[in-house]
Amino acid sequence: DFKDPDFYLKNQPNGSFKNAIKSTVPHTAWFSMGTDSADLDGDGRPDLLVADMSGTNHYKQKIGMGAMSASAEFLSTAFPRQYMRNAVFLNSGTDRLREAAHMTGLANSDWTWTVRLSDFDNDGLVDVFFTKGMAVNLNVADNSEATKIFPGETEWAKHQRAKTGPLKEQNLAFQNLGNLNFNDVSKKWGLDHVGMSYAATASDLDRDGDLELIVANLEEEVSIFKNNSQDSHRILVKLKGTRSNPAGIGSTIRIRSGSTTQIRYLTLSRGYMASGEAIAHFGTGKNDKIDELSVHWPSGHKQVFNNLSSDQIYTITEPGKEPIKPQTKETNKLFSPMPTSLAGLKHKETLYDDYAVQPLLPQKNSQLGPGMAWGDIDGDGDDDFYLAGAKNDKGKLIRNNGSGKFTRLTGGDLAADFAAEDMGALFFDSDSDGDLDLYIVSGGVECTKNDPILQDRLYLNNGKGAFTKAPKGTLPEMLDSGSTVTCSDFDSDGDLDLFVGGRVVPGEYPTSPKSYLLQNVDGKFNDITDSMAPGLRSYGMVTSAIWSDANGDKRPDLLVTYHWAPIRVYINTGSGLESDPKTSGLSELWGWWNGISAGDVDSDGDIDYAVSNFGMNTKYHPKAKKPIRVFYGDFDGTGESTIVEAKYENNVLLPIRGRSCSSNAMPFLLDKFKTFDSFARASLQEIYTPTKLDNSKIYKATELQSGILINNGKGNFEFKPLPKIAQIAPGFGIDLSDFDGDGNLDIYMVQNFYGPEPETGHMAGGLSQLLKGDGKGSFTPISPERSGLVVFEDTKSLTRKDLNGDGWNDYIVGVNNGNLKIFTNDNATGNRILSINLKGIAGNTTGVGSIVTAKISDGSVRVAEVYSGSGYLSQNPPTISFATKASDKVTEVSIAWPNGKESVTEISEGSSMIEIKQPE
Questions:
Q1: In a 10 Å sphere around its CB, with 0-12 CB exposed, 13-18 middle and 19+ buried, how is residue 904 labelled?
Q2: CA angle 541, 724, 284 (to 5 degrees)
Q3: Residue pair 192/180 in contact by the 8 Å Cβ criterion
Q4: Are 721 and 584 in contact (CB under 8 A)?
Q5: Residues 732/813, Cβ–Cβ less than 8 Å
Q6: Cα–Cα distance measured from residue 306 to residue 290, given in angstroms and rounded to the nearest whole number
Q7: What is the pLDDT of residue 316?
Q8: Element (H, E) at 444
Q9: CB of 453 within 8 A of CB of 442?
Q10: Rounded CA gap, 817 and 366, in Å?
């Protein structure tokens, strides 16, 4: 409870226990109360729910917050972080737990004591029951007597003196609907008792196969709720131990019925100050048969029973003989950490207080990196690497020496610019001399608006990997805090042009910065945004972009993701870039988009897109007609603009931030709302007035799910959200590629964001997510236990590259204020892979923008494009890969080159890597 940390005591082989809380969870509840364990997501692993005391509606939350300033330092420094909400820890099968309270709708349950996880309706899914209430109401921020402190006075005596009175709350019950969806059925199930309920337990008192609830109430009789479920099948399992304890406590019981697997861990102490009977209950829904029942005893014995009937009470006796020592079975992982010198590279963030400039920022904008880029800077055939640096932390230029060995290159003009905050980075031939130069976007907010430190930088290559800063005038003046850079020959003149996205205006979030379309004219870049791309300049806060042929006319179009705006598709007409959001089908998808990757996910010959967003596991739950809004205007008459976040509850627009933090930024609120109660009861219009709200800049978000943009071939898209588990944390870097060689594109997305303001807290419930594609536009999540991809840090950029020369792409993950994470692809499918490198002309040496089509021996056709900049602040190597089953092969590759020429290459038997030159 309160500021003391929770403990997770992990049993060691020698019988001792080790507190592993810091290495196991992303955060904990702040005022931890009762806890219970059961399989909430139906994956056969026990999960954990820890109860706290966060209010279930706007009024309760704002009353309960009080003056948060006293806890600001604690909220920002506790490790692991502690937040005032319930914690739903999902077992990933690894040493790390994911956390999903907001996504499940179980984050807020008022002043909670017991949590009980049981299948109350016998449908095979574990439901949730909370008891609530308190003998004295401690949420008394407006009671001046309760805030006085007298020497020697107990907490109880203080509240008697202050006459705070009891806190009576309604208990809550949630039905598990599957797929981490829970529905409040408190009234429907008759479990909406109002009072002060503490301990609770569940037991089948009448032995009819369903569970009754027994609840201990303060100043009332004990409540017994009879379960009248009759429509579903069920079983009870009782254990008799011989070598283990008599009741089999500590045993794990599993059943398989149809396609459903369930697990129960037999224990007595559950919830809060409660003990149950040593009997396991399973609901089986419509299944009247149990295909398999297994018992794992503490002694090591395992028993398996098949073809059992439902609606029975089974008593199972443990064998008396010596158990056979169980054989440990390791899960074959698809990826594993790679020991390489790259893994020692660290991005070191410079700590900066964004809130000193804008107190009501929803998130920090000073820790959005690092970016990363791959390119062959010395012409030796190996891709070299750049890791972007934070302010006052030098970027790292790494030479690839081959055979997995890397050397850091130091000194020179790159090192001299260490004071700038690097964001996106890009290797490309800027001056048409045949080697790759390096463009770096300057960003961040550790400066003032229009500060010269925000000028982007271009470094010219001498052909041997040594870089010199381009002469002044090579780039136009660009004193904007940027994000991404990506290139393509959009004007078809043979050299590469640039799009540079503006991310934020320092001190003026969420206003739109400038973005730039830069035309390459003999190595000098001219700003042609206003003449060639109307609307691109200041549409919104750009997070990522990609050049890709969205409408099938073989010209590179530009797709841009934004924060507080829809994704935009800028169609290349041959004379400029034009955008019509209504035509693209994306006009209503206002999101906090982060990354974009491209590929043909449904095998129909056009290019689709995977886009990362903030996900569903946050306190923000927007809908199309009830968006999250942010207002930016002068609300206090000082001439300075302030941020006001807003949400809908019961069709009323309400402030997201509380009285304490809002009044710190706008002191007039203390006079207007003299109590927390009055502020909590006020609508947004009552607080700030309709006139001032209407005169402010208004932004909204309606869609926070990451997903797929399915292309109809003409640049019109259907948005398909990724599976729910992929929404467990904000996604940033995202990649579309065929990791297992089955011919279908898969997705890997890295997650988590440590930047939200302290009261909101880290959005860090994820471990990254691998999803297997079916070639038809649908994706199935792969558990971290199977994928081996466990990244719990504040991850941002993501690239893929074959680091060990086996032909399969490995993953490189950029971590904010942390070391790179490198994962090798341990593919063991036996499938074939053909890697293709394009040899373009000077000015576009890697054939960026080429459309590559592969014919497969089974008659299928695959299509891919060559990109230079994609994902989130990321540039992959330009290698194109096509994979086939072992019995098939690529027979022919045709290429539509950026200059309009085409080539066809027949592929000889046994080829695994080829180079194709652009025709003269």
A1: exposed
A2: 165
A3: no
A4: no
A5: no
A6: 7
A7: 98
A8: none
A9: yes
A10: 11
Distance of alpha carbon 611 from alpha carbon 601, whole angstroms: 13
Q: Give the residue from 214, 138, 205, 206 showing the smallest Cα distance to 169.
A: 138
Token representation of residue 263: 């697990």
Question: What's the whole-model pTM score?
Answer: 0.96
| pLDDT tens, position by position, 422-435 | 999 999 999 999 99
Nearest to 618, CA basis, from 698, 706, 685, 677? 706
Q: Cβ(806)–Cβ(826) under 8 Å? A: no
Nearest to 825 by CA among 741, 725, 733: 741
Q: What are phi and psi of 650, to 5 degrees?
A: 55, 45
> At 302, which amino acid appears?
K
Structural domains in the chain, sorted by start: 9-133+168-231 (no CATH), 356-610+707-745 (2.130.10), 628-700 (no CATH), 832-917 (2.60.40)
Compute the Cα dihedral for 67, 68, 73, 79 and give only its sign.
positive
Cβ–Cβ < 8 Å for 319, 301: yes
> What is the C-alpha separation between 428 and 868, in angstroms, rounded?
8
Q: Which two tokens stand for residue 297?
A: 């005893």
CA 917 to mean position of chain CA atoms: 40
pLDDT confidence of residue 66: 59
- Is residue 171 helix, strand or coil? coil
Strands 874-875 and 372-375 come out as: parallel
How far apart are the C-alpha atoms of 547 and 533, rounded to whole Å? 14
Which tokens hold the place of 806?
A: 């086996």
Q: In the predicted model, what is the mean pLDDT of residues 336-364?
A: 95
Whether 29 has a pLDDT exceeding 80, the answer reads: yes
Q: What is the C-alpha to C-alpha distance for residues 138 and 543, in angstroms, rounded to an integer?
A: 43
**Amino acid in position 121:** D
Which long-range contacts does 464-469 make (Cβ < 8 Å, 24+ apart)? 464/378, 465/377, 465/378, 465/384, 465/399, 465/409, 466/409, 466/412, 467/397, 467/412, 467/413, 467/414, 467/437, 467/438, 468/412, 468/413, 469/413, 469/416, 469/417
Report the first-to-last Cα separation within the chain, whole angstroms: 73
Chain centroid, CA 57 distance in Å: 25
**Around Cβ 479, how many Cβ atoms within 10 Å?**
16
